[in-house]
Amino acid sequence: MSSDKPLLEVENLNTRFNTIEGSVHAVNGMSFTVNDGEIVGIVGESGSGKSVTALSLVRLEDPGEITSGSIRFRDTEMTTANDRTIRQVRGDGMAMVFQDPMTTLNPVYKVSEQIVESMKVHQSSDNQRLLDYLKIPIFSSRKGWKSMEERAVDLMAQVGIPHPEQRLDAYPHEFSGGMRQRAMLAIALAREPDLLIADEPTTALDVTIQAQILDRIRTLNEELGMAVLMITHDLGVVAELCDRVIVMYGGEVMETGHTEQVLTNPSHPYTRSLLECMPQNTSRKEPLNVIEGQVPDMIGDVGGCPFASRCSYASEECRNGQIPSIDVEEDHDATCCHLHKVPDSNPETVGDRQ
Ligand SMILES: Nc1ncnc2c1ncn2[C@@H]1O[C@H](COP(=O)(O)OP(=O)(O)OP(=O)(O)O)[C@@H](O)[C@H]1O
């Protein structure tokens, strides 16, 4: 079923944490969409609010709180949905994989059992299993286990686990880091999600394994039509995988557009700085570039542009004013008061900016 409506539509989302230091505004008015079958990246430095955004989508923001805004997944408004509806969406709508596979994998159950259990959650997403399945005895009935076991083998093969039929009795500790990531991906895929939310799934892995897993995600996207929201701090991952990118900083969208547009014509000073910090953009003898200053702690109302204190173009307006979202080109926007001051990397758009 295809429609013109986005699969996921996030509007003016705000997620806060109440701490003894004050209210942390981790997500501050984020708006974006993900369409059916699309791969969208959210990129930004550590502490920009990427993970809290992802967790808010599947309503795992606790101990944070969504204070306003809308998360529309197909016809479900996730911010006001009851627990039963949220479980249904998590059962077969949005599945999430995390940086650390052990947040998902239970060390005391075989990997194959955990994949099968995830299939059961998908088939009856209306029961308590999603939240409880790691605590209840697994397989009270063996009926149907054989066909599910075969499907688990298929899924393990699909995510690139070699000789899956020989690993049916393996526990997570018998898997390498890369294999655990694949196992976690298989558990997520067992629910046949429309949207896979992947939060830095390859950060802890070496580059070869990282490339293999990204390649696998791309293949699954193409073969199954599954949309992907990829959370990463790495513009290289964005370049390799994503159709569109959202550059995030201080809980807000700084720049968004098709990946090629944003990477070849980066317009926000923050995007420029991120690109300049990529090791590929530094010659071997030079020290690596860094963005001076630190990510804000996001306590209280920041006001103005969150990047202002680190931006060489910043003016008074940036520190206190309402920051406009400017069309850089079609489908490519940046939230900045001073785009006209940033030297243009794409001569064709110079005229558009002035
Ligand atoms: N449980 C929590 N309590 C208080 N503040 C939190 C909590 N979780 C996250 N935050 C704050 O929310 C902000 C956004 O954090 P988040 O983890 O989303 O950033 P990130 O961009 O995903 O970074 P990383 O890549 O390091 O995970 C940070 O200022 C962080 O300190």
Automatic annotation (TrEMBL):
Main location: membrane
GO-annotated biological processes: peptide transport
Domain ABC transporter residues, every copy: 8-275
SMART domains: AAA (SM00382)
Keyword line: ATP-binding, Cell inner membrane, Cell membrane, Membrane, Nucleotide-binding, Translocase, Transport
Cell location: Cell membrane
Protein name: ABC transporter ATP-binding protein
